[in-house]
Amino acid sequence: MSDTQVMQWFPGHMAKTIRILYEKLKLVDVVAEIVDARTPKSSRNPLLNELIGNKPRIIILNKIDLADNNRTLDWINFYKKQKIFTLYVDCKSGKGIKLFVPMIKKILNKKIESANAKGIKKTLRVMVVGIPNVGKSSFINRLSRGKKAKVEDRPGVTRGNQWFTIDKNIELLDTPGILWPRIDDASVSEKLAFIGAIKDQIMDTENLACRLIKYLNDNYQSNLIHRYKLENYDTDKKTEKEILSIIAKKRGMLISGGKIDVERAAIMLLDEFREAKLGKITLDSF
Ligand code: G4P
Known about the structure:
The protein has helices at residues 3-9, 14-25, 47-52, 69-81, 100-107, 109-117, 136-144, 186-195, 205-219, 221-227, 240-250, 262-274; strands spanning 30-36, 57-62, 85-88, 124-130, 163-167, 170-173, 177-178, 254-255, 259-260. By secondary structure, it is of the alpha/beta class. The strands form two sheets. Strands 1, 2, 3, 4, 5, 6 and 7 form a seven-stranded mixed sheet that branches. A hairpin with a 3-residue loop joins strand 8 and strand 9 (259-260). It starts with a helix and ends in a 12-residue tail after the last helix. The structure holds guanosine-5',3'-tetraphosphate.
C-alpha cells in the first residue's frame, strides 16, 4: 500500500486517537486488548505497548469459533512464554468469558492485597481496547449484561466516562478504546481485509479473493477443495484466477452471454470465509 493510500485511510486521526486513549488509560488499572483469533498478530497495534507502558495487560483472543483450534493454542503458548496474560473467548456463545474476572483478580492481586492491608476495598478498573470489528462491544456486553455502575463524582474520573460493574469491586469502562489497524504493512492489511476488519477496498474484490485462494491453497488446501468440490482438479497447478473461475462455474454464476461471473464468486468466497464455511482458519503465524 502506498503512502498516499495510508494517508487516505487515516486522515490525521491518529494523533487524536492516541491522545484520547492516553487520557482514558490513566483511569484504569488494567488493559484488556482484544484481538481476532484468526489474526492474533495482524489485529494488534504495536504502538499500544508504548502507550500503556507498565500497566498490566491481558490479550484476549476473540472469535475462537472461527479460528483454527491448534493454532489458537499455539498463539496462547506464544504469549504465555512472553509472560503476557492471555484468554481465549467466543463472544458469540460466551465461551471463556467467565475466566476474565478471576484473571483480572490474579493480575492485580498485589494491588488488592495492599489495599486490603490498609482496610481499603479497592475498585479495579478495566479498559477494553482493540482495532475495529474484533468484538470489543460484544465483549463488554457479555461481561456487563447491561448493568451500569452507579455514577458518582470521583476524583480523577472524567465526567462522561461510564462504568459497568462486572464483579464486586471490578468496573469496566463502557467505551472501548479504538486502535487503528496497521495498514502500512500490505500483508497485514490484506489479512484484515480477508476477515472483514477493514471494510474499505484495499484492492479490488477479485484480487482479494485470489489472494485468499492462494493462502488457502498453500495452508488449508483440503478446506478449499472440500468446500468447492475441487477434488478433480489439481489446484497446485492452477492459478488462483482459474480456481476462482472453476468455483464460479460450479456455483452456476453466469452473466448474460454465458460468461462466468467471477466478481460474484469472489464476493461469495470472501463471505463464506468470514462465516467460517470453509472451516476454522487462522491467518497469522509467528
Ligand atoms: P467492535 O466493537 O470491536 O467493533 O466489534 P463488535 O463487538 O461490534 O463485533 C464485530 C462483529 O463481530 C459483530 O458481527 C459481532 O457479532 C461479531 N463477533 C463478536 N465476537 C464474536 C465471536 O466471538 N465470534 C463470532 N463468530 N463473531 C463475533 P456483525 O456481523 O458486525 O454484527 P452481528 O452479527 O452481531 O449483527
